[in-house]
Design a protein that fits this description.
The chain has 180 residues and is mainly alpha-helical. The protein has ten helices and no strands. Pfam families: TetR_C_14 (PF17754), TetR_N (PF00440).
């Protein structure tokens, strides 16, 4: 999966996202066209899908019980980002810049973030014992998801910024009630 994503990024860099075909990606990754679709449902998914959700879940669930859901989530998100290699951070930055600059990818990313919001709802419900339809849980998940989208957009516009520091600052502001 990672190999396909790296080849796709190289082709997107060389030819542009819209001009690059799934066939070209498969050929560059030395896989068949059908194998591409075993890993990704669409060309957009090659930029949007990653393997970080299971790591986030495991880290969140290992957080001490006395932490609030936001503290536990912040710790889990930051620990995941801290474990990324410089190459992984560079790839994430490049993927993020591309996603934020191509309208179709940005729309697909927002749809992907709804799935992230559902994951946060599930994790929060397990931690707090609340129900999925609890408006407070949904608002919490929406706020955390919104913070992530804001950080992604800011990072795409300021690639020299430190992603980890941005994420931590934004989550800290959320925890403080978003004072302006």
């Amino acid at each position: 999966m990672a190999s396909i994503q790296l080849h796709a990024l190289q082709l997107f860099r060389q030819y542009g996202y819209k001009a690059t075909t799934v066939e070209q990606i498969a050929e560059a990754a030395e896989i068949s066209y059908s194998t591409f679709f075993r890993y990704f449902s669409t060309k957009e998914d090659v930029l949007l899908i990653d393997n970080y959700d299971p790591l986030l879940v495991a880290s969140f669930e290992s957080q001490p019980a006395h932490l609030t859901p936001l503290m536990a989530l912040r710790n889990a998100m930051l620990s995941g980002a801290k474990e990324m290699t410089p190459q992984e951070l560079s790839t994430m930055r490049e993927r993020n810049e591309l996603v934020m600059s191509v309208p179709e990818l940005r729309a697909a990313m927002i749809n992907n973030m709804v799935s992230m919001m559902d994951l946060i709802i599930e994790l929060t419900c397990r931690r707090t014992g609340r129900e999925r339809d609890d408006l407070a849980v949904r608002a919490f998940a929406g706020a955390v998801t919104g913070v992530n989208i804001s950080v992604m957009q800011y990072y795409a516009e300021h690639p020299e910024a430190d992603f980890l520091a941005l994420l931590e600052e934004a989550l800290n502001k959320l925890e403080a009630g978003l004072p302006l």
